[in-house]
Amino acid sequence: MRVSVSWLREHVDLPTHLAPADVEQALVNLGLEVESIVDLGETVTGSLVVGAVREIEELTGFKKPIRFCLVDVGGANGTGELQEIVCGARNFAVGDRVVVILPGGVLPGNFAIGARKTYGRNSSGMICSAKELGLGDDHAGIIVLPASSPAEPGDDARPAVGLDDVVVEVELTPDRGYQMSVRGIARELAQALGVPFRDPGLAPAPGATEQPAYPVEVRDPVGCDRFAARMVRGVDPAAPSPAWMVRRLTTAGIRSLSLPVDITNYVMLELGQPMHAFDADRIAGPLVVRRAESGEKLTTLDGVSRALVGEDMVICDAGLPNPVAGDGAGAPISLAAVMGGENSEVVGGTTNVLFEAAHWDPVTVGRTARRHKLFSEAAKRWERGVDPALPLVAIERAVRLLVEHGGGTAGAEILDIDHVPPRTPVTIPADLPSRRVGVEYSPTRVGALLEQVGCAVVVGADRLAEDPGEVGVPAGGVVALTVTPPTWRPDLTDPADLVEEVVRLDGYDKVPSVLPVAPAGRGLTWQQRRRRAVARALADQGYVEVLAQPFVAPELADLLGLSADDPRRHAVRLANPLSEEEPLLRTTLLGPLLGMLRRNLGRGQRDLALYEIGSVFLPRPDAGVPPRMGVEQRPSDAVFAAADAVLPDQPRHVAVVLAGEVEQTGWWGAGRAAGWADAVQAGRDVLAVAGVPGGQVTVRAAEYAPWHPGRCAQLLVGGAVVGYAGELHPAVVAALELPRRSCAMELNLDAVPAAPMLQAPAVSSFPPALIDVALVVDASVPAAQVQQALVEGAGELLESVRLFDVYAAEQLGAGRRSLAYKLTFRAPDRTLTVEEAVAARDAAVARAAERHDATLRGA
Predict the structure, then answer these.
(1) Phi, psi (degrees; rounded to nearest 5) at 669
(2) Most buried of the four, 109, 178, 401, 719, by CB within 10 Å?
(3) HSE-up of residue 335 (Cα within 13 Å, Cβ side)
(4) Mean pLDDT computed over 378-407
(5) What is the b/e burial string over 143-153, where b = at least 16 CB atoms within 10 angstroms of the residue's CB?
(6) Buried b (16+ CB within 10 A) or exposed e, 767-788
(7) Cis link prior to 761 (omega < 30° from 0)?
């Protein structure tokens, strides 16, 4: 919402020299997001002065009428002589006072003004229109100051046209509809700056009379719980809207249409109460407020014919026939709270105006606006909540403005159908804000701040809480406040709302920024650590993690070649799927993962290695009907257990897919295509980082869809199957449009046992004995087997062994090579003697000689 500070000053006593930055900071401190704050005086630079037209010469012979004017600008031009200006506008005459910008000035849009020769005459400056000054859209004629204006030639023209003002634009949150008005923002500024506030919503207004202003029947008091109206007769249809009103409407972004319509918009901006003006002479019978009937139509003010539905609220003219809704229902003439209809709008010849101000259900209005894609200024306010106490005040304000500026006579009859329920009090412990925020607020301070909002606060509660966890009722010994929110704050319904208001008004900047202390714990669970280790290991191997949607199509099982009795065919069907084409939850990661592989291939990628870690959803065969759980109280443990028993089993799986080359071809040589062995190795790597010792992992051939029966490996841990890996079946590859020999691996992480607890090695403080041995063995003997023999033969004194040299030469013999190892011996409780270290070395060499016919080199 955009509003001028001068308008705000009419209701709040802002300091005289309040800087725009201070206004912005005050609003921000209260939680309002300030989009912009503009000093209009700075939008036009240079000399913008009042000028008096002294002479006008009509220039002929051009395509359009042109006038050569001599304008008195006083001493503003430095000489006191008349200013020569060429102008094309024709809405002014000799003697009129106009707005002139002299050479050297700059208009909005960085439009510089200079002196030049045009149409055969010298022109030094410009006579300005509202559009050129950024004050409106009217470019047809220039601004002519009223005769009552005290401005004299040469005076600064900014105050005369409203360019001495500051415009604030704020972005409002959906729960604070009261801020969408001058009344609401002025109230906020008064609270922020601690200055007096004059509430225009409390202005005196006459109540309903026995004789209504117009016959109205409200058939749906839920959708419309208040409806007020009043008539003004004999209005001058040619009466213009006052310039100050047009300026304020333009500043707010609303176009001036006619005096009655401008008044309704002005009152809406000022009070926050949307209104509507009917041409009373175009209404044939009584008004009926009701829900629309399906099939009814209404042409709204924007010229669009709209098909109505049963939830829409409409105002109908009972004097018009309606074949859809039947006799007495009337034909719609307004889409209530959203936009009026063409058949009852104020037109150029309107003399009798019926003002309507009502209170509509916010939910209904919001749904109607979205259904018809008609987000009018009125609808925006209604769906956020409007003060139900405003209709009569708004009617009185609109009537007075119309009578003052448009003539006519206000009708004495006033209609007010009021079904608004009273506000429900909220009981709040006085210490609740302190407990929730961490700042000490005394009960007196809490009550004063809530009263500042407009709440009625009574100390004491009807009862104390018997249950310490009872919401909204204080425990024994705590001061209780019974708070009745004001009518303009429909968002205050719970204790938490009141806590927020206390903190907001006291100042968010007073709330300390303290990080919560993390409670002592054991850190990540072993499942979390394993999941991170698996993800890190696969990423290190060149796989890229993806996150696929868990939703699959029913035909996926056929595409993957699953047999009729495969349990993966039985999937959970969603009651409200995002897409009707994918209504099932996945039972394997491969379906969505292969879909992402195909999508990336289609986008030009050729060498791909993807992985995903996520849950699959396996329905429980004995699952029954889930229990119904309400929101009025916490479900019991038995209800929770019954709900959990219905949920599908959700084990965590890890899967990889490969296509293309794992070692790329280039100038350095031929690459290597991904094969089934890479998928199997990925499974081995996952099990290794999951803490499964290599000796417990078994890999054997298997047949399991969707893998190739001759190139499928089964991964087992301790005799239990945990996953499969290999090359995909050619039929599956063809069905999914994947490259030939695409490979995949899927493993059930939850089926892998937890890693055993490792015993930390003891560290000896005694010095080591370092001995190198070089063994000559047959070249076909693996170095790892020789090393294993050394370890077994050396016994417990051997701390470490490392191969550091491999040597082959003719003097060693044909087919023989030398393997040199560094042996480190250490005892945990003593310093080893030379004899002990040599004996251990000899035992190690002896075992290697026994197993692999090894001999000490040089022996």
Answers:
(1) 140, -175
(2) 178
(3) 37
(4) 95
(5) bbbeeebebeb
(6) ebbebebbbbbeeebeeeebbe
(7) no
In the chain, the domains with their CATH numbers are: 2-41+167-198 (3.30.56.10), 44-162 (2.40.50.140), 216-418 (3.50.40.10), 426-510 (3.30.56.10), 526-624+637-751 (3.30.930.10), 769-856 (3.30.70.380)
Rounded to an integer, what distance in angstroms lies between the CA atom of residue 371 and that of residue 392? Answer: 30
CA distance 554 to 584: 7
In what helix (H) or strand (E) does residue 39 lie, and over which residues does it extend?
A: strand 33-39
What is the rounded distance in angstroms from the CA atom of residue 243 to the CA atom of residue 425? 44
Give the Cα separation of 588 and 739 in Å (integer).
21
Rg (CA), the chain: 43
Q: What is the pTM of this model?
A: 0.65
Long-range pairs for 304-308: beta carbons < 8 A, 24 or more residues apart: 306/335, 306/372, 306/374, 308/332, 308/335
Residue type at 849 in one-letter notation: A
Distance CA 551, CA 582 (A): 6
The pLDDT of residue 477 is 58
Q: Specify the residue for token string 């799927």.
A: 577
- What is the dihedral angle through the alpha carbons of 438, 443, 446, 452, rounded to the nearest 10 degrees? -160
CB atoms within 10 A of CB 29: 17
What is the distance between the alpha carbons of residues 134 and 148, in angstroms, rounded to a whole number? 23
Kindly report, residue by residue over 659-703, the tens digit of the pLDDT. 999 888 888 888 899 999 999 999 999 999 998 876 688 888 899
**Which DSSP category does 293 fall into?**
P
| φ, ψ (nearest 5 deg) of residue 759 | -85, 125
Per-residue tokens: 793: 């033969």
Residues ≥6 apart with Cβ < 8 Å to 123: 84, 85, 86, 115, 116, 117
Total Cβ atoms within 10 A of residue 606: 11
Please identify which residue in the block is written with the tokens 């016959």: 215
**Residue 308: half-sphere exposure toward Cβ, Cα within 13 Å:** 28
Residue recorded with tokens 């307004």: 334
* Residue type at 338 in one-letter notation: V
Phi, psi (rounded to 5 degrees) for 738: -110, 160
Evaluate whether 556 touches 537 at the Cβ level (below 8 Å). Answer: no
Joined tokens for residue 468: 């310490």
Given CA atoms 383, 389, 394, 397 in this order, what sign does their dihedral have? negative
Q: How far is residue 15 from each of residues 3, 164, 193, 318, measured CA to CA in Å?
A: 17, 16, 9, 53
Token reading at 162: 């409203």
C-alpha to C-alpha distance for 476 and 474, rounded to whole angstroms: 7
Say how far apart CA 316 and CA 478 lie, in whole Å.
Answer: 54
Which amino acid appears at position 635 of this protein?
P
Cα distance from N-terminal residue to C-terminal residue, the chain: 97
Q: Please name the residue ranges forming H helices in 623-675.
A: 637-646
Cα distance between residue 298 and residue 313, in whole Å: 12
Closest residue by Cα to residue 155 from 261, 49, 55: 49
The pLDDT value recorded for residue 390 is: 96
Structural contact between residues 220 and 359, judged by C-beta atoms closer than 8 angstroms: no
Q: What is the pLDDT of residue 684?
A: 92
Residue 312 clears pLDDT 80, i.e. is over it = yes
How many residues comprise the chain?
859
Question: Which two structure tokens, joined as six digits, stand for 771?
Answer: 């001995």
**Which amino acid is located at 611 in the chain?**
Y
Give tens-digit pLDDT for 339-354.
999 989 999 999 999 9
Q: From CA 252, how far away is CA 264, in angstroms rounded?
A: 14
User: How far is the C-alpha of 805 from the C-alpha of 807, rounded, in Å?
Assistant: 7
Return the C-alpha torsion angle 738, 744, 750, 753, nearest 10: 180
Say how far apart CA 580 and CA 773 lie, in whole Å. 72
